[in-house]
Design goal:
Immunoglobulin-like; 3-stranded antiparallel beta sheet; 8 strands
Length: 123
């Protein structure tokens, strides 16, 4: 080993040569995915009447698929015009990878109503 201008220089036989020239590189980080042990609820269909008299109660049936694990799911309905929760959140148990349905009851106000049906899970 020789020292030239204060730097150690390896003998030619000990140097590592790469015949290809590196033009560019980027460093990346990949995060380890931690499996979740929660349901992943998907609404597949909803059955509801097209018209109902004011003051009349009726059922809305929501068909779902659980693309996640077993656990506790919830459903609720929100009035899109007032942003009020008109059917309070109800929880129910779901099995992993299963489909099913749940019905909620709603009383028709004295006006047309637009609802957002929400389906989620409890962590």
């Amino acid at each position: 080993m020789a020292i030239i201008a204060g730097r150690e220089i390896l003998p030619l036989a000990e140097r590592v040569f790469d015949p290809d020239i590196l033009d560019d590189y980027r460093e990346i980080t990949i995060t380890l995915a931690v499996p979740t042990a929660y349901p992943k609820m998907v609404i597949t269909d909803i059955d509801y009447p097209s018209s109902v008299a004011a003051g009349q109660s009726f059922n809305i049936t929501v068909y779902y698929r659980n693309d996640g694990e077993a656990g506790t799911a919830w459903i609720r309905a929100v009035d899109l015009d007032t942003n009020e929760e008109v059917v309070p959140r109800q929880t129910f148990s779901v099995d992993a990878g299963r489909s099913g349905s749940i019905s909620i009851s709603f009383t028709m106000p004295d006006r047309d109503v637009r609802l957002r049906i929400e389906l989620g899970h409890v962590e």
